[in-house]
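User: Please predict the structure of the protein below. I'd like the answer in structure-token form so I can feed it into my own downstream comparison script.

Assistant: Understood. Taking the following sequence of 220 residues as input:
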Amino acid sequence: MSTEARLTLATLRSYGIRLALFAALTTGLSGVVHLLTGPVIANQAALQQQALLDNVIPAMLYNNPLRSECYAVTDVALGSTRPHRLWLARMNGRPVAAAIEIQAPDGYSGSIGLLMAADFHGKVLGVRVTQHHETPGLGDKIELRISDWIRQFTGKQLTKDNDRAWAVKKDGGMFDQFTGATITPRAVVSAVKRATTWLESLPERIPERTPAIHSCATIQ
């Protein structure tokens, strides 16, 4: 092997070693960053989730750690066949209400994600939109940052006597619709109505054992 070839080989080996060291260093730094920021990110996510829950279920109604009692429930009445997360609120150990993620599958531009809470007697405590693809300027008025429309559910009671009133005004109900956009509010009203009815029968299915913190046990 010529001197020039040996120099070229040595140079390639040197570059290879440098590249390997750089890769190891980068991987190590990434691991350190993950370790340092992971808890911070998890804590921020927990705070955001608690803030959203606080928007739909008043803290004065319960004294258990709400986020710790999470269940996974599956029923087409909740808007899809996938599991939906449910948080059970207790006062002195007694179940009093629940917050649940539901879907309004028949929105104008697809499924609308909602977080709603109700007691077990047909009273809605709060509703918030978590995801949607509705038309800007029309259907997006379901978002609280755009209008107060979603607040009209708070305090509404669903009973046998007013069942038909749980519809938009265009359909003879008590809920406002949007000018030029009836499909979106109609879908949300229907989803909230179905979920409120579903929650009325929840207490009889609640297990005695409280699930582990940050887990979602399954309710059949």
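That's the full token string. Residues 210-214 have pLDDT under 50 and may be disordered.
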